[in-house]
Structure formats: C-alpha cells, structure tokens
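User: I'm putting together a teaching handout on how multi-component assemblies are represented. Below are the sequence lines for each component of a complex, exactly as they appear in our records. Could you produce the 3D structure of the whole assembly as structure tokens, so the students can see both representations side by side? Please keep the chain order the same as the input.
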Amino acid sequence: MRHWLLKSEPDTFSFEDLKERPGRTEPWNGVRNYQVRNYMRDEMEPGDLGFFYHSSCPEPGIPGVIKIVSAARPDPHAFDPKSDYYDPKSDPENPRWLLVDVAWRADFTRFVPLTELREHPELSELLILRRGNRLSITPLELADFRFLCRLGGVDPKKL
DNA sequence: GCCAACGTTGGC
DNA sequence: GCCAACGTTGGC
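Assistant: Of course. Below is the structure of the complete assembly, with chains in the same order as your input.
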C-alpha cells in the first residue's frame, strides 16, 4: 500500500465538501499533469490512504485522512466542451486524462497547518514542502504518513 | 531536439 | 498583488 497527499483549493472543493458527498466519495477530476496522471495510473491502488491538503487559502494545511477507493479510470470532463477541464486532444478511444475516486476516511482532531509541517525536521523530505513543487498529488513515505497522522491526533493503526 | 515565451501554481 | 518555480507550447 502506498500513501498520498492530495491538494485541493478549499474554495473549489474542500474536505468538508467531500464529507457531504453521497457516500462521502468524490471523483478526483481535473488532473491535467502527466506526472500526476501517471501516479494515479501506475502506482495508486484502491485501499491506499492519504491526506487531504488545503492549498491557496488563508491557512494551508491538512484537515484529515482520505482513502483511494477506485482504480484509475478516464476523466469524463476531458471530453465535455462545456467543462473547464475540457481537452480537445483527449481521444475517447484513448483517454489522455484519468481520475480516481476518493473517499473521506477520518477527521483530524485538529487541523495541522503548513507552518507546523515546516517546523518538524522529521518531515523535511515531504515533497509538498520542497520549493517549487506544484504537483497536486504527491506520494508519502509510510513513516511520514504515520507521523502526520499523529500530529493530527489520529492513530494510524486504527485506519 | 532546442529553447524562449507564456501560463499556472501557491505561499506570502 | 508579487514572485519564484516549473510545465507546456510552438517556432525553428
């Protein structure tokens, strides 16, 4: 099993929004970066755990834990000319863009802000903390996953 | 294949 | 709003 960090702008789609979806599950659509697509296609598996991360907002940080609940499948928005995510170069016979279904798994007992992540030398390898990293999905080492769970007041053994 | 121009991301 | 970083595009 691998672990992940998924970024979203809360004005667009927040952790709270995810909890309000039917089945507390949402298709993670709109990925238009090849490296992130390849993560979903080649490395993600149903059952993988990860974190929701709020970006581009007054207080960036992690509100809780999510779970990947589907394999990668074509992102239908890529074929919809009315969608902001429309890509005329994506051929339905050979879809360029993929998504996975993401489900709420657990709330943190307290929000863990980005400023706090930067204070922990244990987390210095976190891709999200590296300068210039803009990938909307990044892999996490197991040790980092566990460390972050504990920062958020969640026991990783109970997930 | 190179690379300059441009667009986007995201913290501050 | 600023700016650093990086991906994409397109001319050559």
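A couple of points students might notice: Chain A is about 20% helix and 30% strand. The domain at 3-158 of chain A is CATH 3.10.590.10 (ph1033 like fold).
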